[in-house]
Design goal:
- The chain is mainly alpha-helical.
- The chain has one domain.
- The chain is about 50% helix and about 10% strand.
- The strands form three sheets. A three-stranded mixed beta sheet has the order 5-6-7. Strands 1-2 form a two-stranded antiparallel sheet.
- A hairpin with a 5-residue loop joins β1 and β2.
- α2 packs antiparallel against α4, α4 runs antiparallel to α5 and α5 packs antiparallel against α6.
- The protein is globular and about 50 Å long.
- About 30% of the residues are buried.
Length: about 260
């Protein structure tokens, strides 16, 4: 009898393993991003949504990656690993959203679901509850604004999460990882700050910056001076020279066109 019970327990354990979701495979995600994300001549990383959407196996692979992330326990992770986890989840879900509705001209053409007549549903998919992590149903907005921004208090989060738009900082062509997190965040900041969609300085010295520096001003500082100090931290020598002496920001802009090829 004892042998029978042990055998039965072993069989049940095997069944549990068989139906449990697999952990997220960052290498598989790397392969997908490497296949469909590429730098264009204008310095913007673009996604080949048309080719990805036509490949059923690779769409399924992205879905499997997101399911694997949902099965993990980020609350048990060290700080850098958890940061990378949430960024990977946000970006992978954003890719899912666009692929499900492609072709679209802008991610803002995809409305949020499940929030009734709230007019904010008309301006993008960010309020739709898309994933469940540790029993909590989450939207993209909640991942960014209720988890990443308050928990990590690092303005560089805005260079990591990607909103599938030309105006957004680049989608990295590989998964985020704890081991390279700080270097990758700095690289993302430098790439954006030194690109015209991030910062531009007119011949008369007027400084125009991306709207993220206005939308999330509390993350970068409460004044133009603080935002400019942040920009100088990541500016190339040439841009730093052009920013020298600047005390105010003249305007903001953002391009919501899809970051597709």
């Amino acid at each position: 009898m004892r042998a029978f019970i042990l055998a039965l327990l072993a069989m049940l354990a095997g069944l549990v393993v068989a139906v449990s979701p697999a952990a997220a495979d960052n290498a598989a995600y790397d392969a997908l991003l490497g296949r469909y994300v590429s730098a264009s001549a204008d310095g913007i990383n673009r996604v080949d949504y048309a080719r990805w959407g036509a490949n059923a196996a690779d769409r399924a692979a992205l879905n499997a990656y997101v399911s694997g992330l949902e099965a993990e326990r980020p609350s048990a992770f060290a700080r850098d690993r958890a940061f990378a986890y949430w960024v990977n989840l946000y970006n992978a879900v954003t890719l899912q959203v666009v692929l499900e509705r492609y072709p679209v001209r802008s991610i803002r053409d995809i409305r949020s679901e499940g929030i009734g007549l709230d007019p904010r549903a008309l301006m993008g998919p960010w309020r739709t509850k898309r994933v469940t992590v540790e029993g909590r149903r989450l939207s993209l907005d909640e991942i960014e604004h209720s988890i990443l921004r308050p928990a990590y208090n690092d303005p560089r989060v805005h260079y990591a999460v990607n909103c599938a738009s030309i105006g957004c900082p680049n989608l990295m062509a590989r998964a985020w990882r704890a081991e390279t997190l700080n270097a990758d965040l700095d690289a993302g900041a430098r790439a954006y700050v030194n690109h015209p969609r991030g910062v531009s300085v007119a011949a008369n010295g007027a400084v125009r910056v991306a709207s993220i520096y206005r939308w999330f001003r509390e993350d970068f500082g409460t004044s133009d001076a603080n935002v400019l100090a942040h920009l100088r931290r990541y500016a190339s020598p040439e841009l730093a020279r052009r920013l020298d002496g600047a005390t105010r920001i003249a305007g903001h802009s953002y391009d919501w066109a899809l970051n597709g090829r």
